[in-house]
Amino acid sequence: MDYVIEPLEGAGPLKLGMSRDAVQEALDDAPREEATDDDDDGSRDAYYEGTLTVAYDAEDRVASIELSVGGEVRPLYRDIDLFDVPATKAVSALEKDGPYDPDAPEMPFTYIFPALELALERSDEADDATFERLTMGGEGFYSQREVDPESFGFDGSDRARDEGWDDDDEVDEEEELEEEGFSTADGDDDSEEEESNSRASSLFKAAGLDDDDDEEFDDLGEQELDFDNPESIDWSDDDDDWLSEDDEDD
Predict the structure, then answer these.
(1) Do 23 and 140 fall within a single domain?
(2) For residue 202, what is the enclosing H or E element?
(3) How many CB atoms lie under 10 A from the CB of residue 84?
(4) Helix 214-221 vs helix 188-206: angle between axes, to the nearest 10 degrees?
(5) What pLDDT is attached to residue 116?
(6) Fewer beta carbons below 10 Å: N end or C end of the chain?
(7) Which residues neighbour 36 within 8 Å (Cβ) at sequence distance 6 or greater?
(8) Beta sheet of 32-34, edge-to-edge order
């Protein structure tokens, strides 16, 4: 079926603002209601195995229409099937009536045309890749709202979820470590250890000792070293005399 795309009006027999009953009468397929966000006052019906989705507002009027590749419906714009031509050609056709937003989230996977209140999405950023989803709405649907990147289906997070991964796992793990008092800054602990070893090695050499001697190095490590006060460190090799002068005074 060919659905002519008319920005701000509708697609094929579906019109923005149409009632739910009118939509069901216009389509030859039984609807399947889809879940919506908790803060969404409307609802959604899916048709043709989910390749056509109609979202309704709180008054059960069509708020947006979404078409996906692989179904019975072909979106036609200026006699071009937007799912069957390279993305560059599809974009050029739409740009004749309104430019896309170059700063839209998930570019170049998602192209938003604010003046047309329409968006095209794809999963491949190559110039010859085709678009796979079209979403259109009424006045202000894209032009007067902040677009949440999570609402688009072709970002990295969505692909991770398709593979069964939770893209929040890493963040959650870092938060848990920080709550336990551990630092999650990359390289901080390693840097501190390297600096400590470097200063200890310098002190060894200054004392005429061999910093490659593991036994001597380990013995030195048993002391609480004050690197800013080298005189407090006991450099003797007598196992019974590994206390600093400060410790002996205590």
Answers:
(1) yes
(2) helix 188-206
(3) 14
(4) 110
(5) 97
(6) C
(7) 42, 43, 44, 55
(8) 32-34, 43-47, 52-56, 62-68, 133-137, 118-121, 110-113
Domain holding 172, by residue range, is: 155-184
| pLDDT, tens only, 38-94 | 556 789 999 999 999 999 999 999 999 999 999 889 999 999 999 999 999 999 999
- Token code pair at residue 178: 């920080």
Measured CA to CA, the distance from residue 54 to residue 43 in angstroms comes to 8
Residue 223: what residue type?
Q
Beta bridge partners of 136: 65, 118
Planar angle of CA 218, 221, 225, nearest 5 degrees: 155
Diameter over CA atoms, the chain: 97
Number of domains within the chain: 3
Alpha carbons 71 and 61: distance in angstroms, whole number: 24
Cβ pair 137, 16 in contact under 8 A = yes
Alpha carbon distance 91, 137 (integer Å) = 18
Phi-psi region of 91 (alpha: psi -120 to 50; beta: other; left: phi over 0): alpha
